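Practice problem 4.
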């Protein structure tokens, strides 16, 4: 589906992009950092396939899931606070080292960013990844030049699926809800867009775990961002 079909034949004024699983396949680096952390804590590594299922709600939940060994971690289930804090600090140190080592831009993603920018669309990354890792990754992969704004998982006091990061990005880039689109790979992205009253595109190749992307009630589902052009 062409993006312009969502906006009466025009390009949107503002586009908000999720990062992990939407623009960049970063799971190998995240898995390397999680596994190094688990090993430092005397635990078995989780492996790429499991870590891939745990990404999307930010680093604290990624590490809680890794410690619990399961994707369906809920706030009610107990992970010892000291253990969690130690694990998160180790993860940050490890991810600092692994961030960008194996990450690649998905096919079609850069062409989409370029076309949007050429049509005057103002672009932001709205990710749950902490800011300290987001800027360096975007710069290393040559994507930083497309974005006027980066909102990380720790930029505000709440993160997706809360709509606050999307509201903040729209306010900063002077986008209105009916002229702004959110593009993401997970339930957190679609829920945040819904709550902010924005149209939302979901990609099929990312890290959504649980129900299929088609069940997320996005306005369109695409296999590649190049389909939007
Ligand atoms: O760090 C995460 O959990 C994923 O970040 P994302 O919001 O870019 O998918
Ligand atoms: Mg994502």
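Answer key:
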């Amino acid at each position: 589906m062409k993006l312009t079909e969502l906006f009466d034949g025009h390009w949107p004024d503002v586009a908000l992009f999720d990062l992990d699983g939407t623009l960049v396949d970063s799971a190998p680096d995240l898995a390397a950092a999680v596994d190094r952390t688990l090993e430092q804590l005397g635990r078995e590594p989780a492996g790429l396939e499991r870590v891939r299922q745990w990404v999307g709600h930010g680093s604290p939940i990624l590490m809680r899931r890794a410690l619990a060994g399961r994707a369906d971690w809920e706030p009610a289930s107990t992970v010892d606070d000291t253990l969690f804090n130690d694990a998160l600090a180790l993860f940050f140190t490890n991810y600092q080292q692994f961030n960008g080592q194996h990450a690649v831009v998905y096919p079609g993603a850069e062409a989409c960013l370029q076309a949007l920018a050429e049509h005057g669309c103002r672009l932001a990354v709205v990710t749950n990844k902490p800011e300290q890792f987001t800027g360096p990754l975007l710069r290393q992969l040559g994507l930083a030049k497309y974005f006027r704004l980066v909102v990380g998982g720790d930029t505000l006091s709440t993160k997706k699926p809360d709509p606050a990061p999307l509201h903040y990005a729209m306010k900063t880039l002077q986008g209105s809800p009916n002229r702004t689109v959110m593009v993401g790979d997970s339930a957190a992205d679609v829920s945040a867009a819904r709550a902010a009253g924005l149209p939302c595109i979901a990609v099929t190749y990312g890290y959504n775990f649980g129900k299929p992307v088609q069940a997320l009630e996005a306005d369109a589902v695409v296999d590649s961002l190049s389909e939007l052009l």
